[in-house]
Amino acid sequence: MSTALPSLFVSHGSPMLAVEPGRTGPLLRSIGARLPTPKAILVVSPHWETQAPRVGNLAKQRVIHDFGGFPRELYELDYPAAGSPELAERVAGLLRDAGLPAQTDDGWGLDHGAWVPLRYLYPGADIPVVQLSLQAHQPPAYHYRIGQLLAPLAKEGILLVGSGSFTHNLRELRRNDADAAIGSDSAPHTVEFLQWFLAQMQSGNLEALLGYRESAPHSVRLHPTDEHLLTLFFAMGAADDWTQSVHLDSGSTYHSLRMDAFAFGSQSSILADLPAAA
To answer: Is residue 162 part of a domain?
Structure first.
């Protein structure tokens, strides 16, 4: 592949996304249908946290139902994708070459931050998937660097995906507000936060973005802990040019979870005319 695939940040919100697609499910399905078919997928989820990078190397993936108290139907869902031990070793090698103590790992699988959005992006489960762990104790700049180290994979047809949640304050979650519209009076602070991010992205202000926690409005309120946003910086770093980006808006769910997606890179414009693009 002569040009790099765009890298993606997708919001997976609640595990209920798997059975309540709202606006996000169709958007993810449209993204998967529009992109050139990848040879494999590398996904980072905030639900696999380790001190140092670990890369899943199962030959056949297993789904992890890493949640409790949800309807039985969620625990019956599967995503029977293949893994790729070869890609896992390549990822670990790229990170080790940069001095990081990365290892492959056969003790994990795909947690809901990975398999829930993938069920919409590639419902056939016919593309090999590898999951990379997150170092939630590290700052955004670290995750941006991880993305940079793995960016060469995109030129080989590997789709790099950061899965998280653009906002993630579970204390403000309202289950009776499953599909709040963008700009709803119920959560104006989430829109202010989004608008700040879009302005910094448009101006190419990487320093401000990496320091969002000190600069963005309502940042600590919307991310009491920021593991669900760190994967955005991974996706930015993984792009051949993060300043070329497309924002894909599917509103919010349960009041406090914005479900925005972003595509980064010189080829991100192929997603610009999707119905939910903003």
So the answer is: yes
pTM for this entry: 0.94
Q: Which domain holds residue 238?
A: 7-271
How many domains does the chain divide into?
1
On whether residue 276 sits in a domain, the answer given is no
Rounded to an integer, what distance in angstroms lies between the CA atom of residue 109 and that of residue 121? 18
Which residues of the chain carry a pLDDT beneath 50?
Answer: 1, 177-186, 277-278
**Residue 80, domain CATH:** 3.40.830.10
- How high is the pLDDT of residue 55? 98
Q: Is residue 2 part of a domain?
A: no
Contact 269, 24 (CB under 8 A): no
In the prediction, which pLDDT does 74 show? 94
pLDDT of residue 174: 64
pLDDT at 276: 58
DSSP string, the chain: --SPPPEEEEE--SGGGGT--TTHHHHHHHHHHHSPPPSEEEEEEEEEE-SS-EEE--SB--B-----SS-HHHHT-----B--HHHHHHHHHHHHHTT---EEESS--B-HHHHHHHHHHSTT--S-EEEEEE-TTS-HHHHHHHHHHHGGGGGGTEEEEEEE-SS--GGG--TT-TTPPTT-TT-HHHHHHHHHHHHHHHHT-HHHHHTHHHHSTTHHHH-SS-HHHHHHHHHHHTSS-TTSEEEE---EETTTEE--EEEESTTGGGGTTSTTB-
What is the structure's pLDDT at 176?
A: 60
**The pLDDT of residue 3:** 79
